[in-house]
Design goal:
This protein has 364 residues and is of the alpha/beta class. It contains 14 helices and 8 strands. Helix 1 packs across helix 11, helix 12 packs antiparallel against helix 13 and helix 12 crosses helix 14.
Amino acid sequence: MTTPRAQTHFIAFYSYKGGVGRTLALANCARALAARGRTVTIIDLDLEAPGLEAFDAFRPVGEASVGKDAKDAPRPPLAGFAEYIADCRKSGPPPSLASYVHRCKGEPGDKGVVYLMPAGKRGEAAYRDILVFDWDRFYRDENGYRIMENLRGHIAHDLGGNEKSPIKPDYVLIDSRTGLSETGGIATHQLADLVVMLFSLNRQNLEGTQGVHDSLTKLPNPPKMLLVASPFPDLGDAAETKGTLLHRRLEFVRTRLVQAVNAAQPERIPYRPVLSLEERIAMDQEEDRRSDLHLPYARLLDLILKTLNAPDFYLDAAAEAMRQNRLGEARARLEDGLKMHPEHPPSQECSPTWRATAVHRAST
């Protein structure tokens, strides 16, 4: 069976300031995609404070798991982005990414797989060098733009370097550095098809986010943008009435971040005290799914897929409708997807493929 699919999608998660749950949002989206059977690459470009490799699900296959009480136990450092840049500068882009990208152990029952390119081996030479790296010189004198384009293409076409069975991810999720940094700009301005911008609703966060929003809109081929207010304060319905501080903050979003797809109604990730004590992936926790802790991340992922116009959005929605025996809704979702994808016209050849794919997903 040939599943309808588009090109590899590159999605940057960005925040002007820390403390808004950016890495956790990326981790939840990556794990949900893997649970759905997708191949995902995650890249940690938050070089000063990398965090993705701290999640047990993102540790390499074969490494022993740690218990809940041992999350701070030392783990072997992993080569990644820092070593890739160092090797490119020394001898040009390597023929394979296998030394810099690691297959993650995931969770039992995963239908897909996640690969991690970490920031690099902290404390070692390549990592120390990249923390003080002259990115302007790299781009000006060392073909930096071309090297990063090569990395993007290499990730999209083969992670493992095996021509007979290339590993081609469906989605690449990039954890971007905060603020107005060089590596943040690489993720948002060069690599990304879509930028997910997370922010709290104070003035400094909003004005900083607006600066990046405005910069992105000036690009010749700007990425799409999604807005996520996080953590969103639980102040009650009256707090959003006209004239209140919260209303004014949301009005800033609606009127100043107008090029974002969802400026009129940004996604909201509510403040949850438990997540201030423990960064855990709600999409993987049965107790969190029962308590709806995962729902904001599920909504965000659905919006990401819809914004990318990915066939996955329509196929997964149709499959879910089939599971609940809502066949009319399932058919409508498939027809919507076919209309949105001229490369998959609703012909006698293609429509059965989409239907068969949705039926297969509904049964798994």
